[in-house]
Write a structure and sequence with these properties.
The protein is of the alpha+beta class. It has 2 domains: 203 residues, Bira Bifunctional Protein, Domain 2 (BirA Bifunctional Protein, domain 2); 46 residues, SH3 type barrels, CATH 2.30.30. It is 23% helix and 32% strand. A hairpin with a 5-residue loop joins β10 and β11. The longest helix has 16 residues. The mean pLDDT is 95. It binds biotinyl-5-AMP (BT5).
Length: 260
């Protein structure tokens, strides 16, 4: 991957701008700074290596050189999209899942922000915002995808098993640039449906552990255990607990696991 060929590969997508780095701390940090300045809608920051890549709550995200895709896409939401911003993580997840399917890999979405192949984490999404008073001025959608086996961190640092596209395909994976093009194309198509049920339905369809018993831990509170039923229209998760009550899990620092 390099800046010149990326510009060429992505030229049809009409991105707002493109910044490529051989190595960077975190593409999200760069994108947040750019978004606080003059970045246009659909500006993209991408790097071959991250030295300070992060997940939610500043957890570490590994992006070793030449092995993965790490990008941050800046969105400037239009007025009609503003009431639906909580759907953005689904929009990104669906786009990644679509690109996997193009290569015969059936991805599942572990709510809220993980993409699984064969039950193992292959990609993670980190959404951050730039505020102007009480309004969201821009969203930064950070995406990390393990393309080659060498992207997968050692098991001892992981909270959930991980894999890569190469491992799941069992052969040399497609070029990162091609995968990125597919994700961004799918993203542009799905964004058209951001305000419709079509997006929520497609997202729900791909949820991992649907119909299964799961445990959701959120911010130090007692875990919620129940059957994973589906999504609310804002993308919140709906479970049915042991008392046959519907329980809605809102976004936040939550982690979801199947129960043993
Ligand atoms: C995420 O957080 O999964 C969001 C990851 C977002 C990374 C992208 S890369 C481009 C952009 N720039 C950034 O700095 N970040 C974004 P979370 O759900 O909190 O998961 C973090 C956990 O995933 C870590 O604590 C590890 O256990 C695990 N992990 C770290 N690196 C991994 C990898 N390469 N593959 C699979 N799991 C990983």
């Amino acid at each position: 991957m390099n800046g010149h060929s990326l510009n060429k590969t992505l030229s049809n997508l009409n991105l707002g701008g493109l910044r490529y780095f051989d190595s960077i701390g975190s593409t999200n940090d760069e994108a947040l700074a750019w978004a606080a300045g003059d970045a246009k809608d659909l500006s993209l920051v991408i790097a071959d290596e991250q030295t300070q890549g992060r997940g939610r709550l500043n957890r570490k995200w590994f992006t070793p050189k030449g092995s993965a895709i790490a990008f941050s896409l800046i969105l400037r939401p239009s007025a009609p999209l503003r009431p639906h911003l909580t759907r953005t993580v689904g929009l990104a997840a669906l786009s990644i899942a679509d690109s996997c399917l193009k290569h015969g890999l059936a991805a599942r979405i572990k709510w809220p922000n993980d993409i699984l192949l064969n039950g193992k984490k292959t990609a993670g999404i980190l959404i951050e915002m730039v505020w102007s008073g009480a309004d969201v001025e821009a969203l930064v959608i950070g995406v990390g995808i393990n393309v080659h086996k060498t992207a997968v961190p050692p098991a001892e640092v992981l909270q959930f098993p991980a894999t890569s596209i190469e491992h799941e395909l069992g052969r040399e994976p497609p070029e990162c640039e091609g995968i990125l093009f597919d994700i961004l194309s799918a993203f542009l198509s799905w964004r058209e449906h951001m305000c419709t049920d079509k997006l929520i339905n497609a997202w729900e369809e791909l949820l991992a552990f649907r119909g299964k018993q799961v445990q959701v831990c959120a911010g130090g509170r007692a875990p919620v255990i129940g059957e994973l039923l589906g999504l609310e229209s804002d993308g919140s998760l709906r479970l049915r607990n042991a008392h046959d009550e519907s329980v809605i899990i809102r976004f936040g620092d939550v982690s979801l696991r199947p129960t043993a």
